[in-house]
Please model this.
Amino acid sequence: MSTAALSRKESEVLFGVPIARNGIQPVWIEISNADQRRYLFFQQTVDPQYFSPREAAYKSHYSPGKRFLAYGAFGVLIWPLLLVAPVQYFSARHANTKMDALFAERSLGNRIVDPGDEVSGFVFTHLDEGTKKIRVKLLSPGAAKQFSLFVQVPGLRVDHTRTRFDELYGPDGVTDLKAASLPEELAALPCCTSNARGSRNGDPINLAMWEPSSSCWKSSRVQVGTKPR
Model:
């Protein structure tokens, strides 16, 4: 399975309208079934509140009434525009019909993926920027396959894509602790943030993360105040 989330600009180029203004983000999904089972794909697994192709197109429709009234109002002052108003009305309706067809044509939709088949298309999800988590679940009688992917959305520069985490600390920058000594080590930390000169305290430091060193990058347990979350 492969996937990609479109940026605002990419969405507008591909669909001809700025659909990101309405909080909609097309996600490209390609599924290749090399299994011997038939699978079902449902768009709800990607986004439980996804937009259908018709709904996504409708939110981007041109307003025939507004165009007609706009040219009609100017036509009071410049009479030749009265002749253009009906043309604008019907051209907007025609453009909306073509838009509906385009969105439907490029949509993946709910699909049956037979063995050896390859399907692809867009799911219209809610807008995310920076990094987007995409979940896809394929269902089959007595079996299921689930995928979770993190994809980079072009257009927004985020800190974690530019940070070299393996270079944040030197050889002496990380200390292994025992569970018994952890409370004392935490108590020895400064109570608060401070300014550059250390003359004034800022917000209190009230969050700690701990995990065995063998799996510290796989999961974390966070304590905020006195309740672990």
Q: What stands out?
A: Helices lie at 8-15, 53-59, 64-77, 81-105, 182-187. The radius of gyration is 27 Å. Residues 168-228 form one domain.
